[in-house]
Design goal:
rod-shaped; disordered N terminus; five-stranded antiparallel sheet; Alpha-Beta Plaits; 5 strands; about 290 residues; 8 helices
Amino acid sequence: MSGTKYEGEREVDLGRWRRAVVEWWWLPVAGLVLGGLAGAILSLGGGSNFKAQALLSLGQPFSPGGGAPVNSFATNPRAVNEIIRSESALKEAASRCAARVGTLRGKVTSAQVGVGTGAARTAVPLITVTVQGPQSVKVECAANDLARVVVRQTTGPYVGTKIATFEKSLQSYQDQLDSLVPLVRLLERTLNNESLAPLDRLVIATQLDNAQTRRGQLLGLQTAAQQQLALAQNVESAKIIRPAVAVKSAARSRRNSILVGALIGLILGSIAAIVADAPRPAHRLTSA
């Protein structure tokens, strides 16, 4: 019996509420209109937001012999998110861009571009570093600086050492080639001397042949080192593919603001209609 009673009371209340909304229909309509107008006004006064996004490649380091790829945290896209959100990286970017650290916290994100499956998953990952904020210059500066921090803290140290080694090797090969040039010329002039004794001519010819052979070996080593250097610089090392440029974006969606405001106004108007239609309690007058 009690359950049936409560159900009947709920049906009566819902029926009364429906009648109240219909009878006082202008209150929900007014709330709908006023809420939509309020949402539109708030969207206009919300200002603008700027977003800057840098695109970078983490690179794919190889072993010193240039054969097998080296997998470490430096090639893990998740490491990028941890790096750019770290307090040290945020402070460094804020210092370089004349911004407050608090304006960067919670406004920095990273994402992997084109996550593939199967064979595509083994490709060098592309990562976006995005910064949002109210000032375009500082947002753009922070995005680019955080991208440089990622490059420096991921494959930068290992590949940087390889690049420095290749550059030193190339300089050494070039120095040896430069020292062979005058020796070859001297041996060629000496060999062309007709008054040279046959035995001496044989010795000079042997020395010239050794010098030419050494020159060819150095050129081969130089070519291999140049190829390894190009591989390290363009493939193995993390680098910024596209620097960040700040673009303007709405701080809040005007359409969403109007819809939310209209919905809230409709609800408040309906509540007002129900309250207005509620029966007034009878006041009993008591005589003294």
